[in-house]
Amino acid sequence: CIGIFGGDGATIGPIALRDEPAPGLDPSISLAGFFSEGLALSRDGKVAFRAYLKGPGVTGTNQTAIYFGASGTLALVARQGQSVDSTTLGALSPPSVNADGQVVFESANSVWLWSSDKGLARVAAVGGTLDGGGTITRIWDHPQLGANGRILIDAEIDDTPALLLWDGTLKVVVKVGDPAPGVDGTPSIASLHGINMLNAKGQVVFGGSLETDDVVITTENRDCLWITDPSGTPHLVLRTEGTLALGPFDVRQVTEWKLSEEDGETYGFGPRESGYPSSFNDKGELGVVVRFLDGLLAYVVSRVE
Q: Global pTM?
């Protein structure tokens, strides 16, 4: 990749080009290239990206960096090998951004939040403990940044898959083994599906499968989709073999559904604040393609007040 380009719809121009001096570093160090995946575009038109570096002293342990901004105003967010809070940054995950000028990424088993006025701050780390109990034992590499600095983190607590939300403090949204909200008999959640979304209100969409007993809960009716309300309480939206009312006298049985984010090969996947397409908007409305038992396909919009 020879450069990062952007525009306003009428004109397009370079934001960063290969062989140019690397902003924020010694003039002898230049940009060697760019990662082709993981670009993040904020709502005010600024971009975050990962770049390769070259020059004196550049090795395999410090050759990548994250930048954020626009043409002529790029800021160095982080560099591989940089020491922050007694931690040396390793590989840098794709960044996520918001319109507040913040950037989030994962490195060295930690989630980092950057802003131009405060620099880098660690918000979660493997080995950290939660107020409600439990220790973070793994952090996956694509935290999602929403408005007002909220961060959705795919992690493990005591080796159990979980979703965490940081909004100044770290909270558990859901974890495997929790009772399944809105499901009769409150069976437990056996797994999380991995496609999670965060909106500007701090609401979260997540999918999961129920623990089967091969009698009441089977492989045909175990998959569920939830949305949290602004207070953080999850509400059941869809369940396979559950029913959905399309009108006052039109109730149909659900067999499967699909979110637009699952077509990742076509659109890529990432948070709405970073410029990716999303079927979950800031009003709390979720668009889902649903197939019913009679073969009907419908695009359904669900909303949790």
A: 0.91
On the 0-12 / 13-18 / 19+ scale of CB atoms within 10 A, 261 is: buried
Tell me how far apart the alpha carbons of residues 156 and 159 are, in angstroms, rounded to a whole number: 5
- The rounded distance, in Å, linking the Cα atoms of 75 and 224 is 42
How many whole angstroms separate alpha carbon 33 and alpha carbon 213? 52
The residues facing 69 across adjacent strands are 47
Under the banding of pLDDT at 50, 70 and 90, the label for residue 1 is: confident
Of 279, 272, 237, 278, the C-alpha closest to 254 is: 237
Write the DSSP symbol of residue 100: T
Residue 267 has pLDDT above 60, yes or no: no
| Banded pLDDT at 45 (limits 50, 70, 90) | confident
What is the spatial distance between Cα 271 and Cα 147, in angstroms, rounded to a whole number?
A: 11
Single-letter code of the amino acid located at 162: A
pLDDT above 80: residue 277: no
Neighbours of 39 (CB within 10 A): 21
Dmax (CA) of the chain: 72
Q: Alpha-carbon distance 274 to 69, whole Å?
A: 13
Give the contacts of 119 (CB within 8 A, at least 6 positions apart).
none
